[in-house]
Amino acid sequence: MSELTPTELAGITAVMARAGTVPVGPLRGRLLTAGRSNLTYRLDDDQTSWVMRTPPRAGRTPSAHDVAREFRAIQAVGRTAVPVPPAVVLHEDEELLGAPFAISGFVDGRTIQTQEQLADLDDTQVASAIDALSAALAALHAVDHVAIGLERFGRPDAYAARQHKRWSGQWEILGDGFSPEVGKLATALSTALADRLPVQAETGIVHGDYRLDNTLVRVEGPSVSIAAIVDWELSTIGDPVADVANMCVYRDPTFDLIVGEPAAWTSDRMPSVEDLATSYEKAGGVPLRDFDEHLALAYFKLAVIAAGIDHRYRAGATHGEGFDTSGDAVPLLLQSGLDRL
Fold it and tell me: Cα 163 from chain centroid?
């Protein structure tokens, strides 16, 4: 079940009112089709709009779907010049919806998720979007996380080791849904990574899922700017190089199997991995040390995320099209990670 009932909408209204944001009329809720993890709703009262994020009501896996984490991230980052949606309220009691939920202000901007949407931009606008994307990520990595209250948002050191442990643990939960051959690939990549974990030279806020379609953009003539960075559920404190590697790994055509359609980010109109890395460094980002190792770890992470989507699909907990191909992406991503090493 994904639709919000009148009783649930009334409860959401009360939660918002207690937080100091009072809808002027009855709320309407509409499920947005984007997203392969949390459910995203648009809420309206005829005058103002908001966005609500909540986990799926079934098929959840441990440590995924962390709407509380992403709310705390945008609440803190919102104190800086990095563009994020305005935080409204976090409700962690699961009684109302069967899961926690977080509400933020609606940001007027365009999503560029598919190659069809990308076709609306000419080459100059695409180049401008990449420059803006790189600049926003470099700006995020330059933020002093302690100064904005995120000193306890994650351990500052051993980021790669923590990521390796986390996604290896997730695979232990999800791997039974795959063939022994796929299991061997996962074990081989996890073992190889354990021997070649990248060395951390910098510490900062890591978004964890950064790419063009996890932003809202504004198009003004030839110029494209980032209106807001969204989808912060995987954010933490760690190695900024990992964010760049994650962004680059999403360029792999296999990502289309996860989103279920030709993604804007996999288009050949987008820069290569090498050009993306160069764009980020030119924007003032951190030096990309041990980048191949970071890319391999990012492939492992994306493979496990795809396995989680497949797990929810088989549990009947997904909504929308394209979820049936995520499992096909898993062995391809694992092999690509091994190839990087």
Answer: 15
| Under 8 Å between Cβ of 19 and 95 | no
Asked if the structure places residue 248 within a domain, the reply is: no
CA distances from 48 to 27, 108, 199, 205 (A): 10, 11, 46, 31
Residue 80: give its domain's CATH number: 3.30.200.20
Query: Which is more confidently placed, 90 or 58?
Result: 90
Helix (H, G, I), strand (E, B) or coil at 170: helix
Domain that holds residue 19: 6-105
Residue 212 belongs to a domain: no
Decide if 66 contacts 100 (C-beta within 8 A): no
The total of structural domains in the chain comes to 1
Q: How many CB atoms lie within 10 A of CB 268?
A: 9
99: in domain: yes
Tokens of 1: 């079940």
Question: Exposed, middle or buried: residue 324 (CB in 10 Å: 0-12, 13-18, 19+)?
Answer: middle
Residue 143 lies in a domain: no
Q: Per-residue pLDDT tens for 284-298?
A: 999 999 999 999 999
